[in-house]
Design goal:
Blueprint (H helix, E strand, L loop, with lengths): L1 E5 L2 E4 L4 E8 L7 E7 L6 E6 L6 E3 L7 E6 L4 E6 L8 E8 L12 E2 L3 E6 L1
Length: 122
């Protein structure tokens, strides 16, 4: 399984960005897909997860009502729409896949994409 993340960049506070994670390789139809982020000197934190069947979406409290995660089964792509961005959202964002993503320690997650940098200026 390969995950490739796109869409990072530099934006002013209050702006929007859309991250995409393209999934290829063996089928991941029964895998949760999610986004994590890691700021310098911080741990890698869970931002949002969408369940394998699209029935459940989870958001960290810090991004709830600003970020939206979605999954397109036809293109094997998971997107993260980020609105009303704040300087504290600045981090490297990673997409990841596992069967039970929310309950899996980051060091044991099966698949990771490369990071994409998001920088929000004040």
């Amino acid at each position: 399984v390969q995950l490739q993340a796109f869409g990072g960049g530099l934006v002013q506070a209050g702006g929007s960005l859309r991250l995409s994670c393209e999934v290829s390789g063996r089928t991941v139809s029964n895998y949760d897909i999610g986004w994590f982020r890691q700021a310098p000197s911080n741990e890698r934190d869970l931002v949002a997860v969408i369940s394998w069947d699209n029935s459940v979406r989870y958001y960290a409290l810090s991004v709830k009502d600003r970020f939206t995660i979605s999954r397109d089964a036809a293109t094997n792509t998971v997107s993260l729409q980020m609105n009303n961005l704040k300087p504290e959202d600045t981090a490297v964002y990673y997409c990841a896949a596992d069967e039970n993503l929310r309950d899996t320690n980051t060091q044991y997650i099966s698949y990771w994409g490369q990071g994409t940098q998001v920088t929000v200026s004040s």
